[in-house]
Amino acid sequence: MSAKPRALYLCQQGHTDKVFRPETFERFQDRFQVWLRPVSDAAMNRQLEKRIASADAIVTGWGTAPFDAAHLAQAKKLQIIAHSAGSVKYLFPGDIVQKTLIPRGIIVFSGNHAIAYNVAESALGLMIACARDFSEYTIHCRESGGWRTDALRTNPQGLHGAVVGVVGASKVGREMLKLLKPFDCTVLVYDPYLSDYEAGALGIQKASLNEVFERSDYITVHAPQTDETHHMIRGAHLKKMKDGAVLVNTSRGSVLDEKALVAELKTGRIRAALDVTDPEPPVDDHPFRRMTNVMLLPHLSGAGKYGYLKIGELALQALEDHFAGRPVEGAVNLAQLERIG
Description:
Order of helices and strands: EHHEHEHEHEHHEHEHEHEHEHEEH
Shape: elongated
Number of domains: 2
Number of strands: 12
Structural class: alpha/beta
Radius of gyration: 23 Å
Oligomer: single chain
CATH superfamily of the largest domain: NAD(P)-binding Rossmann-like Domain
Strand content: 5-15%
CATH architecture of the largest domain: 3-Layer(aba) Sandwich
């Protein structure tokens, strides 16, 4: 019987409880020779120096410190890093990716697809809430003591039959496409990296960013935060939106020019549901906090038990698949890391 692969587990207990079901973590410990992270950071750093040389795998998560190039240089047996969280960029400062990970063929898994389930569900919920004025009616009924009112809509354009623009065919964007299928929407997708073949396989229409903003009743943004996407959505796009259209952003606040968005919201023509801002949180007197046509949330869309527990399942599956010689679902394309969120 071959020896079990050695895995260094660098996550704290709170993270473990959040993303691993007990039975999933038990299976992890059963199938791998696992070194668990000590509670103390100092003890962890001392032990890491001793143990990393014999590690076949490393498991990271929220709260794990970025890798040190000297530590990775000692990890001669390392084959895979399984990140039981979302973005992996912060883990690899400097030129670690180019000088260590890629040349040595070290696989990096990210659990961002699991988080995508939560984000897409939240974005869909925000679109429905805006479509039906749920927040406005709740406030009206609670604060005025009234019931229906002519000040709010009673015959809105809901999601059924609407034109929905999806900005970014990311993992979240693709989960959103699945959730929209029952609503008989016309779906327009803007993503400069989406090929015609992929668009055909997804059964969607590719569109320019201008076309998405001109035609859509609802626009949901799922673009990554990169230099290329900084203020990608500008005032010229927002001015093209239909009267009564809704903009939902659950990606990153920097994708939008917020000053331009505030200016357009002040006209009262459009509405926005924002789970993210730039910076977070917005300053106390930011207009987003006062505008009645803005639904503002404190970056909650990625949270949720279903997606979080999927992270642990997918991370363990990635480890099992790799050491069984199977392709790793969720492996990061390190050569394209700069344009990944």
